[in-house]
Fold this sequence. Notes:
The complex is a heterodimer of chains A (286) and B (312).
Chain A (H helix, E strand, L loop, with lengths): L4 E14 L2 E14 L3 E5 L6 H8 L7 E10 L2 E2 L18 E4 L3 H4 L6 H13 L3 H14 L5 H4 L9 H13 L5 E5 L7 H18 L2 E6 L2 H7 L2 E6 L2 E7 H6 L4 H9 L12 H12 L1
Parallel strand pairs in A: 3-8, 3-9, 6-7, 7-8
Antiparallel strand pairs in A: 1-2, 1-4, 4-5, 9-10
Chain B lengths: L1 H28 L4 H6 L5 H11 L5 H13 L5 E2 L4 E2 H37 L2 H15 L3 H15 L12 H7 L1 H27 L2 H8 L4 H38 L5 H10 L3 H29 L1 H4 L3
Antiparallel strand pairs in B: 1-2
Helix pairs in contact in B: 1-13, 5-9, 5-11, 6-9, 7-9, 7-11, 9-11, 10-11, 11-12, 11-13, 12-13
Amino acid sequence: MSREPILEVDSLTVDIDGQAGRRRILDDVSIRLEAGEPMGLVGESGSGKSMTLRSILGMLPPTATIVDGEIRFQGRNILTSGPGGKFDQRIRGTGISMVFQEPAIALNPVMKVGRQITDAVAEHRGLSKRAAHDLAVDLMDRVGIADPERRAANYPFQLSGGMRQRVMIAAALAQEPQVLLCDEPTTALDVTIQAQVLDLFRSMQQENDLGLLYVTHDLAVVAQLCQSISVMKDGRIIEHGVLQEVFDDPAEDYTRTLLSATPRIDGPAQRVDGSASRLTSREEAQ
Amino acid sequence: MGKYILRRVLLMIPIVLGVATLSFILMKLAPGDPAAAYLGDKATPETVARLHRAWGLDQPMIIQYFQFLGGLVVGDFGRSFLFQTTVLELLKLRMPATLMLMLVSLVFAVIISVPLSLWVAATKSSASAIVSRVFTATVQGMPAFFVGTLLILVLGVNTGLFPVGGYGSSLGEHLYSLVLPGIAVALTICPVLIRSLTAALSDSMSAEYTNFAASKGLSRSKIVRNYAFRNAGITGISILGIQVGHLVGGALVVENVFAIPGVGSLLMEAVLARDYNVVQALTVIFGVLVVAVYLLTDIVYSIVDPRVRLGA
């Protein structure tokens, strides 16, 4: 089962300068993601989940400094493998891409969505307008947008929240990356749409054999989507393991608290797999 | 859209009426007499009275007011007391230079403001911020006629690079002679333009859609052009439109510094001679011009912003 790691975050330590002085926001964070592995990264707000994702794409705010550690993609330390020993931006989109939390603000409001899906791939591969459009329509079709030909000419405000998130997923997958980072991509969606988008993530992950690093504070989502889980608290990874094992027997009190704080999944019971139902029964036992 | 434009055009009527009334009242309230100004010191009361009769200034105020409004409706601004020709004839002669100056100034304002704002927003360095702040504060503190005089001294007289005045006779000469005055007028609106454009660009550069564009691996130049600038430009357009009012003021003053035969110098002479019809006509025309530019700005705005165009 164990495959070569596609993405390794190794002892990543990041400080940020704020008004109260320098503060450590990531402390010795290590993550090992195998090719095709869906991993959940959970923790409360401010625990450093999003910062971890942003460091992987070299998109930390300018006030942040990487003090220590490496981020290896396909064995190469991308923090220094770019031109001039800098972050290797070439992995963005082509190797690793990201789906953001709020599609309403993460899409350019004044650009047609079809163009937003393929503008990067068109630039990298030198696609013609026509080819880029066709690819966008094809991708939109694959992420389950009905009438993609017409929708490609829409602006973000003309789409529903769920559709916008599908557009963002299509854009993130346009260059066939091996790793997809997800920063709470369903939090801004209502519950039924959330379930549909999760389904989409699962099928996209399986179809494309994606390494998935899925940030959320919702353990039920992790239960539905992931094989392994890392728990973050105060900028550290405090627990990591195979999903089922962590859910069954958390090593940390904090993880236990998180698990017990997860609301019951009363909705679509058929969507919930074994691990999550055990999570539910565990709550009932307490 | 058509309905919207029609409504806005109809709304211009009360605005124009207001501007016309105000300019009429202000001219009548101003001390001085066009006939006395025309005839000079040695005028007798009889000759002054005769001129008043000839120019219709002996009529009751209300009659004069409605004559003025009636003329406006048919595009007749009356005759100039000073130049002894119709105001329309004067406008035909002098307006092109002023409009050209405004256009050149607008271009310079954009040429100066856009790169500077982009530089500040894109580098986010304290050096660029300081340069921009010093520039805007300095320029804002200097009236257009002073900047104009400085430009004449430095780039006109000392280096001889540009003409120090006049307007030339061909389009090339017109443009060449409008370089310095154009810069002087542009600088009057640059501070506001730079500040708001910088703010808008900084916002859009740190916006989540820009982050997402970067995460797709799009090049920085494309991100700046298609994401940051496209969004900030929409703000820029409306601010540029609002600044056109200031542009009119600046152009009228600067024309006198550079001896450009536009309506600015005409207005100055007309005010001094109490040439009522000319002053009133120019006030109304510039009032209409400013309101029309606002309307045009809104239309352009709605064309570039799909959320407005398609009704978000």
